[in-house]
Amino acid sequence: MEKDLAQSLVCTLYPFILAVSIDITLPLFLPLFLSFLTLLHTNFPFSFEFSRTVFTPISPLRCEGLREKIIVLIGDSGVGKSNILSRFTRNEFCLESKSTIGVEFATRTLQIEGKTVKAQIWDTAGQERYRAITSAYYRGAVGALLVYDITKRQTFDNVQRWLRELRDHADSNIVIMMAGNKSDLNHLRAVSDQDGQTFAEKEGLSFLETSALEARNVENAFHTILTEIYHIISKKALAAQEAAATTILPGQGTTINVSDSSGNMKRGCCST
After folding, report:
1. How far apart are CA 97 and CA 83, in angstroms?
2. How far apart are CA 140 and CA 106, in angstroms?
3. pLDDT in tens, the chain (272 residues)
4. Rounded distance, CA 249 to CA 244, Å?
5. Any long-range contacts for 40-43 (C-beta under 8 Å, 24+ apart)?
6. What is the 3-state secondary structure (H, E, C) of the chain?
7. What residues form the membrane-spanning segments (predicted)?
8. For the structural domain made of 65-235, what CATH number should be given?
9. On the CB side of 33, how many CA atoms lie within 13 Å of its CA?
């Protein structure tokens, strides 16, 4: 009943959303509506997919198991996060990709060590005006791909700020990988591979260079993150099972044998 009500509210607001999406007031309206989405996502077991002007409710059945396997894409605007997302989830690349407004979602199911793993990827806007909105999405994430553009030094210099913000808002056990994107533009390189490796080692991050255009290392990046997430979740589940197995339930006790090694009981001081 409550889930149906929440979905009805979003569907009712859809025409208004579409109308204002091309209006000059969009930057003012969108933060309010995204806050509304965040509230619904927190209180009801369903989430939303949207691509700039179109918001589509996801069925609750599609969301089962996704909350523990959320990966966020973060980094400066223009580093190629949206194309990394589309390459991984749809095997597509758009040369005329526009800046993300707020947050975009996509999902994919894949096999990790013989197990089916469902992942929900959140592509966050890199623009400063959306920072307060996108940071709210870090809290539910168990993995993050921190992206910079190897042809723009400033995007690499800003990685430290993104990393600090992520660690301030996300779970302490979040799996983080740093990716130097647009490796196909090696002739325009402004950040060396060694610079990326050194920074990643210093901060304890995984690292690789990717190319969404050539589909280079995109699959590998997400597979590495999801594999590590799977290992962490598996270890937690195993530890919980072991803890449950060793817990003494109320009413149960341990029998202690007070006999000596020869099987004779100790005599009292007045024994004859």
Report:
1. 7
2. 15
3. 555 555 555 544 544 454 444 444 445 555 556 556 555 555 544 444 433 333 333 333 333 333 447 898 999 988 999 999 999 999 999 887 666 655 677 889 888 888 888 888 888 765 555 556 656 778 888 999 999 999 999 999 999 999 998 999 888 889 999 999 999 999 999 999 999 999 999 999 999 999 999 999 999 999 999 999 988 888 888 888 888 877 655 655 555 555 554 545 445 555 54
4. 9
5. 40/6, 40/9, 40/10, 43/6
6. CHHHHHHHHHHHHHHHHHHHCCCCCHHHHHHHHHHHHHHHHHHCCCCEEEECCEEEECCHHHHCCCHHHEEEEECCCCCCHHHHHHHHHHCCCCCCCCCCCCEEEEEEEEEECCEEEEEEEEEECCCHHHHHHHHHHHHHCCEEEEEEECCCHHHHHCHHHHHHHHHHHCCCCCEEEEEEECHHHHHHCCCCHHHHHHHHHHHCCEEEECECCCCECHHHHHHHHHHHHHHHHHHHHHHHHHHHHHCCCCCCCCCCCCCCCCCCCCCCCCCC
7. 12-40
8. 3.40.50.300
9. 26
Q: And the tokens for 121?
A: 């990827």
Tokens of 139: 């809290």
* Residue 109: how many other CB atoms lie within 10 Å: 11
Compute the C-alpha angle 236/239/240, nearest 5°. 85
142: which 2 tokens?
A: 């168990």
Dist CA 118 CA 236 (whole Å): 18
